[in-house]
């Protein structure tokens, strides 16, 4: 549109529903280091009423719609599903909050409390819940990925001021910074008409030019140990990886599948089943836009020393660098990826979210070529990525140590 | 000039089109229900088996048999099963449910001829190898230790146990229950449970002639019942007399709360209206509990209420994790909201919103062919037909505020509810 808003349509008349997904190109990485957790707090405030509409949820529920949102380190994504006949209600609501929020003190105060309870519920009051608060600053020294979306500490949220909220909105919440995907039982013509009516009058706003400190390559081994009231020891080894646009991304993704996807994966088979040293083990990558993380995590069995467990884990990482990856093994992870992508096509909402995400990456059409990119990966490429990533001097190891206390009573009255 | 202050016109959901399954009974008694949607080349197949009667002496067998189902057969090791399923990009998931348990297969149609023989081997010839059982016991005991550190998990365990007593619904596994597991018991349980007479197959996706033939060839012909019938009846529920449980966790930043009681299930005529009442109370983002306790007071990240419908009873409950310092205040608000429903009529505007929300939500829950199969399972296992959904829609549209007040007085009595607090109080 003239104001810079990008609008995509995905027509699917097999459903009576419509989806409106709006992605704002702002995440926790865009925060001020002294005001972390702000992008996510702001997401909550987006439901506190807009300039012309005092409450957001109620009018949507009244027409049979549902909505939610999430914030990551890279993006903030809002979505609505509603009966397609009531599509205009979604345009009315979303355009008004893109135009301007109500900025009420009461809403800020309540959402500060809600987010602080979320902080406690998900990060502080759970066994191992604070692991990301500790691991991120080990992997990242410069890049704002060093804090989690919830924020560095409760005080940053506690101290959020209404003026900061207004400034954040002005900087990031404008049409130039947004991508809208409308999907389901809609026509492109109708979407165009509604977009022109509700979104085109919104001023373009100022363009936010992102200029973040990039993370320097890591060249020293990092290690930390924390002791906490958890029942079992836990080992996290995180490696830096290139960002999402890196051409080796697909090989790295398959590498994580070879290591840890499903019961036939290497880590599960060798370290949980054949030579049982762990009760559970995982490997995954974050897929961040900038420098990402490849994380290998496992809980050693009771009676297994951390040294032994860690050594066994490294043995597997060393093996995947050089030892042959059988044709069948590579075909297996490719087949798995192909069917996962096909099954995810069954969800209209996932489709809309993915289109917005790929459009932000550069082109929504990339979504249609993901399978080919996975299928083209060779064993040599997987080896190459494993050799680049699994270096001691690219690792950050966090040992989560179970506090040795006297046996607590079971804590249950049943 | 564009008027941004008034909402656009809208339409209410008129009717809901549900897809009904086709049904074939194989000669060995296996009942196949299928939903054919030829657009995608993929399929979900659920093999559903009724749980065996709960045995207090061996309480974990139903769960353990399901969890270990893919750990080895007479022909295949656990590793070989995993290799074959993963190689063909399929997914195999064994889930224990309170009434029925199921093995679900997700696969692309083109790989089905390779995947189904493995599934057949699992449901007819699982052997629960000793070594795999040891691994299972060891790992589950470790996982249990972590789970018991989660206040919401503990609250759910205490609550279910109090409400349902010593039954499959109320049982909460302890470390020693895992220790008791014996291969011979698992095998005996499996052989009784996994028989054609106790098996229903629900397939959704591309289910063409060829697929049906394949399903029949795999699960219909040579697979026969044994001389012993599976006993899937369950012992009577004996709820505990004590209604208040406080599990203190001195370091807790938040307390998990769970409040509720046993109630009617889906076949009862009041059930759809009770769902409306539940939605008003805590069943959606704009509900009274959320509006008051999260959006007004900021005591919690989330609070909600829910209704479950099981074969032998239903239950209605409220669950949340609230700041430890405001736990008493939060519970007082829960009580207040329940009492308001008993004393005052729900305003028409709010009721209208909830009606529209529920109908939109039902429509939106029919996202793809799998969702239609899920809707069918709800009614099939409640002994109801598709007219249930017609009635449901009708009641959501027409139930009156007076009727909902009557239901609140009949089904929502705070003084009779079980109350569980894990954390600080």
Automatic annotation (TrEMBL), chain B:
Gene3D superfamilies on file: Metalloenzyme, LuxS/M16 peptidase-like
Gene Ontology molecular function, alphabetical: metal ion binding
Organism: Mucilaginibacter straminoryzae
Record's protein name: Insulinase family protein
UniProt keyword annotations, A-Z: Coiled coil
Ranges for domain Peptidase M16 C-terminal: 183-356
Coiled coil regions in record: 324-351
Domain Peptidase M16 N-terminal: 68-166
Entries under Pfam families matching the protein: Peptidase_M16 (PF00675), Peptidase_M16_C (PF05193)
């Amino acid at each position: 549109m003239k104001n810079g808003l990008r609008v995509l349509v995905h027509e699917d008349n097999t459903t009576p529903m419509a989806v409106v997904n709006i992605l704002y190109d702002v995440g926790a990485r865009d925060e001020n280091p002294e005001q972390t957790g702000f992008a996510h707090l702001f997401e909550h405030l987006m439901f506190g009423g807009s300039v012309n509409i005092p409450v957001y949820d109620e009018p949507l529920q009244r027409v049979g719609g549902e909505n939610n949102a999430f914030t990551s380190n890279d993006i903030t994504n809002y979505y609505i599903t509603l009966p397609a006949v009531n599509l205009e209600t979604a345009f009315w609501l979303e355009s008004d909050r893109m135009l301007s929020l109500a900025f009420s003190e009461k809403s800020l105060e309540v959402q500060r409390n809600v987010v602080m309870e979320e902080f406690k519920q998900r990060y502080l009051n759970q066994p191992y819940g604070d692991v990301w608060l500790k691991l991120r600053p080990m992997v990242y020294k410069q890049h704002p990925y060093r804090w989690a979306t919830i924020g560095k500490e409760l005080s940053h949220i506690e101290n959020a001021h209404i003026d900061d909220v207004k400034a954040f909105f002005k900087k990031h919440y404008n049409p130039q910074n947004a991508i809208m995907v409308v999907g389901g039982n809609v026509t492109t013509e109708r979407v165009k008409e509604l977009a022109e009516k509700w979104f085109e009058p919104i001023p373009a706003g100022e363009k936010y030019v992102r200029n973040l400190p990039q993370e320097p390559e890591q060249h020293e081994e990092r290690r930390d140990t924390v002791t906490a009231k958890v029942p079992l020891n836990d080992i996290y080894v995180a490696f830096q990886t290139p960002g999402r646009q890196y051409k080796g991304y697909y090989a790295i993704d398959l590498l994580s599948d070879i290591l840890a996807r499903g019961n036939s994966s290497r880590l599960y088979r060798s370290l949980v089943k054949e030579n049982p040293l762990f009760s559970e083990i995982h490997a995954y990558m974050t897929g961040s836009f900038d420098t990402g993380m490849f994380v290998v995590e496992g809980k050693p069995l009771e009676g297994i020393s951390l040294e032994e467990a860690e050594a066994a884990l490294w043995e597997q990482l060393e093996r995947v660098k050089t030892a042959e990856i059988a044709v069948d093994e590579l075909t297996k992870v490719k087949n798995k990826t192909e069917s996962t992508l096909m099954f995810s096509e069954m969800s209209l909402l996932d489709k809309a979210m993915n289109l917005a995400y790929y459009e932000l990456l550069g082109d929504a059409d990339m979504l249609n070529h993901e399978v080919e990119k996975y299928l083209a990966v060779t064993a040599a490429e997987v080896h190459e990525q494993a050799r680049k990533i699994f270096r001691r001097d690219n690792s950050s190891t966090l040992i989560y140590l179970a506090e040795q206390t006297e046996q607590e009573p079971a804590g249950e009255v049943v | 000039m564009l008027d941004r202050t008034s909402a656009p016109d809208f339409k209410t959901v008129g009717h809901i089109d549900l897809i009904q399954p086709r049904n074939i009974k194989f000669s060995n008694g296996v009942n196949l229900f299928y939903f054919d949607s030829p657009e995608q080349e993929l399929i979900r197949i659920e093999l559903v088996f009724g749980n065996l009667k709960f045995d207090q002496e061996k309480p974990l067998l139903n769960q353990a048999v399901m969890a270990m189902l893919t750990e080895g057969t007479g022909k295949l090791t656990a590793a070989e099963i995993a290799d074959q399923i993963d190689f063909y990009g399929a997914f195999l998931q064994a889930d224990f449910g309170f009434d029925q348990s199921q093995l679900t297969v997700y696969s692309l149609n083109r790989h089905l001829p390779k995947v189904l023989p493995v599934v057949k081997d699992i449901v007819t010839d699982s052997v629960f190898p000793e070594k795999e059982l040891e691994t299972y016991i060891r790992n589950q005991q470790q996982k249990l230790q972590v789970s018991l550190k989660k206040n919401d998990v503990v609250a759910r365990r205490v609550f279910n146990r109090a409400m349902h007593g010593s039954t499959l619904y109320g049982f909460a596994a302890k470390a020693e229950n895992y220790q008791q597991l014996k291969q011979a018991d698992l095998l005996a349980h499996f052989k009784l449970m996994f028989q054609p007479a106790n098996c229903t197959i629900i397939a959704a996706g591309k289910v063409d002639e060829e697929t049906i033939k394949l399903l029949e060839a795999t699960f219909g012909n040579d697979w026969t019942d044994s001389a012993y019938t599976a006993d899937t009846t369950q012992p009577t529920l004996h709820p505990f007399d004590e209604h208040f449980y406080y599990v203190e966790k001195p370091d807790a930043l938040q307390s998990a709360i769970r409040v509720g009681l046993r109630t009617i299930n889906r076949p009862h005529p009041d059930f759809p209206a009770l769902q409306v009442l539940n939605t008003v109370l805590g069943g959606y983002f704009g509900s009274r509990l959320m509006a008051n306790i999260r959006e007004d007071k900021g005591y919690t990240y989330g609070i909600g209420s829910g209704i479950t419908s099981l074969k032998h009873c239903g239950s209605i409950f409220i669950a949340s994790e609230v700041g430890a310092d405001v736990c008493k205040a939060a519970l007082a608000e829960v009580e207040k909201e329940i009492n308001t429903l008993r004393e005052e009529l729900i305003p028409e505007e709010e009721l209208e919103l909830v009606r529209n929300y529920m109908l939109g939500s039902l429509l939106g829950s029919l996202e793809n062919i799998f969702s239609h199969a899920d809707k069918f399972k709800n009614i099939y296992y409640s002994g109801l037909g598709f007219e249930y959904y017609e009635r449901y829609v009708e009641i959501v549209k027409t139930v009156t505020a007076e009727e909902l007040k009557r239901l609140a007085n009949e089904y929502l009595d705070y003084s009779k509810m079980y109350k569980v607090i894990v954390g600080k109080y």
